[in-house]
Structure to design on (664 residues):
């Protein structure tokens, strides 16, 4: 049986389209010293992959046109070239947009047998959960009673940020595009409020939703939404610069907000990179697992079936049409 | 005898010139309930006064053309309308650019008799010292061994920041305009290095002076000097946004640095306003006084004689021609 792969075929102009990708059948990989041969079960799609296509993502060096698209996977070991892994085990690894892969054992992590639904390791218990927790709690440092605002509130990170803010005793206010996403935030995720940035007069609505100002703004989108949040910061308010999804499809840089605004609000602005927080991963996962188990934390997924559906699903993500964690089921 | 005053006469275009000010003789003020009649002995000149002339300084509301220029003074009480103040006492107040003033008692502070040289209350023991200490220590939070970079290193705040950084066990690297200011920084103030931003290849010199990167950048100037410092930040480096003197004479805003740079360095950027730290004033003054007394801290002044010299002295300050704390002696 062949290894089905999605290849980065053409540099997108603006929002990616399916023709920017090519499907091909390739040789099945093999294990070797230090390498695991894995079958990918679940593939995570995420906006950083668009940045990688633009050559603007520092954590996928060497990636470019002609390569298999990068992505985290939950995979099953077929053959192992490392004594720490046995065939049949589930692993979390960077298997990429393909049905099989050879991955370095050093970059794979065994998942506990009988643990939670494996796809959670790509969402709330994976990089998204770590991003939400470490970004909000360790970097944003909210205090109980704070107003936490998060953009892309219906997204895989934003939805978790709002829920963790609520657990931390804060008011959670989301910003999202469209009424359906706002309903998800206030309904399923339990945000105190969510503002539709595509609606007329939305900045007034945001102001009304934050009568005491914004104590922590968790920024997933940058651009004009960030511009709107800054003047609403409470004195001493904090901004976590986590993502700038509104700019990932853009060819020209969006102008930065005037730094004088930060002085006026005595704001603290911090750049956040999740990979700095890997050492805290297990501790944070334990907390998130507990909250998932007792229902305080909801994980929502937007699943496409089969590798061939990956390009279309990714284009939906980059058009802002998905909600929750965006996955592709590869073993269907 | 008349009260001599400097009036804000004309909105400056770019760097102020003497014709933007007018001298006039006015009526001597009187004390009244809650008001002190004071004679001003020393006047502090500072870049914020240029911002106030442009209507861009939030702490001098109502100030505009036709008004007496604002400024802190060390003054002697002539007559008191408040039981807490007696004639003959020295006070720190906002007496403005004039030889006499009526100031609210609530905005005046008695200075200890037999204390340090009164003009120190306008420099190292005044707002400048509080700015340097609270901005560097409380906001920048340097650790021993950190590399602290400060711009306007020969200025009233910058010179103190570098010296306090050294006391805190850090390497102090200054940025200043011209070889004379750099010599002051490394000589009198004891900086480990100082880079002349007007010299060819100065960003390479800054890089060479910070081989482990910049842990704390104390920004007094903004603009292109800030742009040059950001890429040199160590991972997790901190920027204290204290002033942007390079922009005070400018009519059009300078573009802000791309926020993605802050993410790449995991930088923390904090806006600093000294008035937030007034509650710590006495504690900080005690520390600074001790260091002044034992010679670990040097206070340098650039003094002009007589009120009529104030406009010219201020224009020198705004042309970047002064070093240390800029004062006018009014009782000469």
């Amino acid at each position: 049986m062949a290894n089905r792969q999605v290849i980065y075929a053409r540099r997108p102009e603006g929002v990616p389209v399916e023709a920017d990708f090519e499907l091909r059948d390739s040789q099945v990989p093999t294990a070797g010293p230090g390498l695991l041969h894995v079958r990918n079960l679940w593939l995570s799609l995420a906006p950083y992959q668009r940045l990688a296509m633009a050559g603007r993502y520092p954590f996928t060096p060497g990636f470019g046109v002609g390569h298999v698209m990068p992505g985290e996977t939950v995979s099953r070991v077929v053959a192992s070239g490392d004594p720490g892994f046995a065939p049949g085990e589930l692993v979390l690894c960077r298997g990429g947009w393909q049905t099989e892969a050879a991955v370095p054992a050093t970059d794979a992590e065994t998942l506990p047998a009988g643990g939670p639904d494996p796809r959670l390791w790509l969402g709330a218990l994976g990089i998204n959960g770590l991003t939400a927790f470490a970004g909000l709690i360790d970097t944003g440092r909210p205090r109980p009673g704070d107003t936490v605002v998060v953009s892309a509130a219906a997204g895989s990170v934003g939805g978790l940020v709002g829920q963790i803010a609520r657990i931390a005793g804060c008011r959670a206010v989301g910003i999202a595009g469209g009424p359906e996403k706002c309903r998800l935030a206030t309904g399923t995720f339990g945000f105190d409020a969510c503002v539709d940035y595509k609606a007329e007069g939305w900045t007034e609505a945001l102001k009304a939703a934050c009568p005491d100002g914004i104590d922590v703004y968790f920024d997933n989108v940058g651009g004009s939404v960030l511009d709107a949040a800054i003047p609403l910061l409470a004195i001493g308010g904090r901004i976590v610069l986590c993502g700038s999804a509104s700019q990932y499809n853009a060819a020209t840089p969006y102008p930065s907000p005037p730094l004088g605004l930060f002085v006026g609000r005595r704001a603290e602005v911090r750049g956040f990179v999740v990979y700095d927080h890997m050492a805290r991963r297990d501790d944070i996962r334990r907390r998130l697992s507990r909250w998932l188990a007792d229902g305080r934390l909801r994980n929502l997924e937007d699943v496409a079936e089969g590798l061939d559906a990956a390009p279309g699903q990714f284009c939906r993500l980059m058009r802002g049409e998905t909600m929750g964690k965006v996955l592709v089921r590869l073993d269907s």
Notes: The radius of gyration of chain B is 20 Å. Residues 316 and 322 of chain B are 6 Å apart (CA to CA). The domain at 3-122+300-329 of chain B is CATH 3.90.180.10 (Quinone Oxidoreductase; Chain A, domain 1). The first strand of chain B starts at residue 3 and ends at 8.
